[in-house]
Every structure is written in C-alpha cells, then in structure tokens.
Amino acid sequence: MKSRISRRLTRHTKRTSKQTKTCQLMQKLVVQSNKLRYISLAELDDTHIAQLARLNEKDSSGTVWTEKEIKIFVEDEKTQLTLPDISRKFYSYGIFMDGRIIGYICGKKSYLLGKQPNKFDLLLVILIDTTYKNMGIGTNSINWFIKTYANKIKRLGGYARKARLFADIAPSNIGSIRVFEKNNFKYANDIQIKGKMYKRYYRGIL
C-alpha cells in the first residue's frame, strides 16, 4: 500500500498537471480570440519588413526569405490588390500579435496542383516566429485564411467553388505537418521540387 506521503505527492502531481493544461488552454484561447490580426503584406512598412527578415526562420516549405526578397514580395502584393479576385495570382498577409509582426501566411494560385487542376487552387505557405509556437496561432491563421478565401470563391461561383488548398511541407517540419493536419489537410504524396523532397497535403475549401 502507498504511504500517506506518496498518496499526497500523487494527488499534487495530478493537480499541478491539470492546472498546467488549463493555463495552456486559456493562453491559446486568449491568443486566438483577442490578439491576432491579419494585414495585407502591401501595408507593411520598412520596420515590419525588417522584423520579418530578422526572424530568419524557415517557413512550412523550408524557405528562408531575405529582407530584399520580402520587399519585392510586398511590392508585388501592392500590384495584386489592384486586381479583381478572378485575376489575382496570390494573397499574402502578415500575422500580427500585440502590434508586432510574428509571421506571414500566403496563398499562391497554381494550375498544376493535383490530378484535376483548377486555376483557383492555392499553394499555401505559413511562417510563425518560434517564440510563439504551440500557442494555436498556426491553426488559427490557416483557419482564418480558409474562411477568407472561401468567401471570395463563393462570390466567383462556378468552377471556382471546387478550388482546393495545397501545402508542400519539408519532411523535417513536423510542427507544420501537425498544424495542417489539424486543419483537415490530407496527405497526397511525396513530391520533388528543384531537387528537394516535400510532403504534399491538400483539402477542399467549400
């Protein structure tokens, strides 16, 4: 039989573990409901661009963007904003929390995704500052992007309603794989792009 001290220690451990899980859940709820903002990359200023470049981290596709490349991307996004949805090539947003940019999420149209290509299919890429990992931000951001794009293709109607989202994820990026799977992305196949291997995931939008 367990001693009285042993039983007390067991109860304390269980209580502490439960409190920790509750705190983590509350933290995720606060982050998801109150603090996240999504702003078009076209609206980023030089300070935001520099902050994004300083993250110097790989996104879900395993790519690290330099400050120069991000500036080009921002200028391209400004051009895209002038186009109707039927003509746009991509949608890109900075992810902000407490006024600080902590990542980005981008969807680029591709005609070569899947077995039945749809010109409204998007290849989705996401980056979250590692400081903010495991807080539900990735899951929230992908869910927000899906809802935003879903509203656009509903208005377009027709063939656009069959559009899908794809993600080519570096095999070593286990965190991104889990986040996409939480958002109902299904594994399709392994694919080689420019000599590098990726795991391709997909899901419908509507």
Short note summarizing the structure:
This protein is an alpha+beta fold and 206 residues long. It has helices at residues 4-35, 46-55, 67-80, 137-156, 174-182; strands spanning 36-40, 90-97, 100-109, 122-128, 164-169, 186-193, 196-204.
What does this structure look like?
It is built from 5 helices and 7 strands; from the N terminus they run αβααβββαβαββ. It is α+β, with helices and mostly antiparallel strands and 206 residues long. The chain has a 7-stranded mixed beta sheet with strand order 1-2-3-4-5-7-6, sandwiched between helices. Mean pLDDT is 83; it is low at 18-33.
Give the assembly state of these chains: single chain
Q: Order of strands side by side in the largest beta sheet?
A: 1-2-3-4-5-7-6
User: Helical region count?
Assistant: 5
Tally of strands: 7
Mean pLDDT: 83
State the share of residues found in helices, binned by percent. 40-55%
Helices and strands: which structural class?
A: alpha+beta
Q: Beta-strand level of the residues, as a percent range?
A: 25-35%
As a whole number of angstroms, the C-alpha radius of gyration is 20 Å
Weakly predicted, low-confidence segments: 18-33
* Major beta-sheet overview: 7 strands, mixed
Succession of helices and strands:
HEHHEEEHEHEE
